[in-house]
Amino acid sequence: MRGYPTSFIFLLLSLGALAWTPVLTGCGAALEDSVAAKTDDSAPKDGLEELFGTRLQNADGEETTLAELEGKKVGLYFSAHWCPPCRAFTPLLVDAYNQLQADGKPFEIVFVSSDRSAEAMRAYMKEYDMDWLALPFEAEQRSALAQRFGVRGIPTLVVVDADGRTLSADARNQVAQWGAGAYERW
């Protein structure tokens, strides 16, 4: 780069860094939820069933139905125990969730695990007192949901309404900033 002013070289390096940002993947990616997750104003054909299928489970692995989600805002939490940023954010989300439950707010979370096994997923849920629902580890919808919402890194929290329409693609940052108060922004 001989012959170019230092400021021009710095600009090229800066632009190069920006150009590579969208392709970062995995735990700790530099993308914020607002960039990583797509906003979709159209509801899926069958709402939440289209997103999750017909079965969910709790932290003990016991099956449950979508009836627990009826009439509620739903947070899709993309996370994994092996991810340090996830382990830092999860306690914030647990606190916000517990506060919303205590306040009687119609809100539920569905955990979409990126753990390496069903056992690791359940252990993570128990260790962090994630008293919410999860997509079964073997569910095919896990990758479809990540693709639908443009998840490029974890943790990611996307909030949808009872019809499956995106209310917030930036819910992770909102919960980190406002805790349970983020609910009113959705």
What does it look like?
By secondary structure, this protein is α/β, with parallel strands linked by helices. It has a single domain (24-185), classed as Glutaredoxin (3-Layer(aba) Sandwich). 37% of the residues lie in helices and 15% in strands. The protein is built from 7 helices and 7 strands. It has helices at 6-20, 33-36, 48-52, 84-102, 118-127, 141-148, 171-178, and strands at residues 56-57, 63-64, 73-79, 107-113, 133-134, 156-160, 166-168. α4 (84-102) links the parallel β3 and β4. The longest helix is centred in the middle third of the chain and has 19 residues, at 84-102. Residues 4-26 and 29-45 have low confidence and may be disordered.
Write the topology of this structure.
Layout: H1 6-20, H2 33-36, H3 48-52, E1 56-57, E2 63-64, E3 73-79, H4 84-102, E4 107-113, H5 118-127, E5 133-134, H6 141-148, E6 156-160, E7 166-168, H7 171-178
Parallel strand pairs: 3-4, 4-5
Antiparallel strand pairs: 1-2, 3-6, 6-7
How do you describe this structure in short?
This protein has 186 residues and is α/β, with parallel strands linked by helices. It has helices at residues 6-20, 33-36, 48-52, 84-102, 118-127, 141-148, 171-178, and strands at residues 56-57, 63-64, 73-79, 107-113, 133-134, 156-160, 166-168. Mean pLDDT is 81; it is low at 4-26 and 29-45.
